[in-house]
Amino acid sequence: MTQGRDTVLRTRLRNGLEIRLKEIHTAPLISSWIWYRVGSRNEYAGITGISHWVEHMQFKGTPTFPAGVLDRAISRDGGYWNALTWIDWTSYFETMPADRINLALQLEADRMLQSEFDPSEVKSERTVIISERQGHENEPTFRLYEEVQAAAFRVHSYHHTVIGDMADLQVMTRDSLYEHYRRFYVPNNAVLAIAGDFRTRPMLKRIRELFGPIPRGPRPEFQPRPEPAQNGERRVTVEGPGETPFLNVVYHVPPGVDSDFFPLTVLDSVLTGASNLNFFGGSISNKTSRLYRALVEGELAASVRGGLSATIDPYLYSINVVVRPDHTAEEALDVVDSELTKLIDQPIEMEELIKAMKQARALFAYNSESITNQAFWLGFSEMFANHIWFETYLDRLAEVTPEHVLEVAHKYLSPTNRVVGIYRPQPEIRGG
After folding, report:
1. 362 pLDDT more than 90
2. What CATH code would you report for 234-425?
3. Read out DSSP for 239-301?
């Protein structure tokens, strides 16, 4: 059992459940997050989308907490709850008045072990998820990014989007879903992170009472096949209804634990404005970024955003451009390439670097303020690294120099290391 400089208690139950507790007495609220190390990274052809579907089934109730009871109980107690599934993890959270958090803890302990996968509910949810998938397919940005992601990963399981392939959603069985649940929803594959207005000792005692009896499961073993190095630029084009072109350019970059991640964070802030690592947080203005000035102020684009994610395995840095209807994605790509050439040929001035670092730091601070977000960070960094990554994040950013940024720009922003995706609107095509 350890406590760090930020008064976080870190311990592990005998069944392997990792615990992170942080007292915050600024408001009578507590936010509880449970994280499972399972996402689309742990899937393969035939069961793509299964982690997301299992997440849906966790809201269908247990013998103790039938589905209708859950929503009413959380709402009656003034709480808010939700869940997130991503490529590396699945998480569930409840933010409650401090004196009502026991309900959230009971719920999560119960559905770790007792979730019901009633065949009729599975059938009903298949319709819901297929409808969700069809809704995504009506969005040009989803259709484009799915093609880009598939082109970027030919071997690694990051090839698949979290929602899964329609072919798998149509035939996946109840037994497959339940087997996935039982394999990955075990205490020794989970982190329970709680922040808010509580006292650590009584909270830890209650956690042990509720979660301690849950038996440890076999350690889930899953090692995706490593993606081979890309040997040349890849391009994909998607055509569909609408009037707006879209550009999505992605570069292969290292995982969150790599030392290059922090210079890349600053590089992202310089190019497109700081990316939000907190899936539950907000964003800040990117109007001082180079690509905003070149594309949006240059009247070629309506918006531009970057995306840098902290992941377990090497993933992607993305540049996403909503092009104005009177221009083409190819024109926007020419501007992007021009700005990248300038970045690589001319070292960043210290003044610009400091401004970019301030933006990245401000976004990090902004998305760490609320009790819900503080609980988020306690568990999130454990999914791909550990608590030290989170605790030293700002210090690591402060160590970045112009030379570091130039080095990672040379290393990763090469045409041979990217996939270019273009959505070409066809006004005569009607949406489905």
Report:
1. no
2. 3.30.830.10
3. EESSS--EEEEEEEE--TTSTTHHHHHHHHHHHH------TTS-----TTSHHIIIIITTTSE
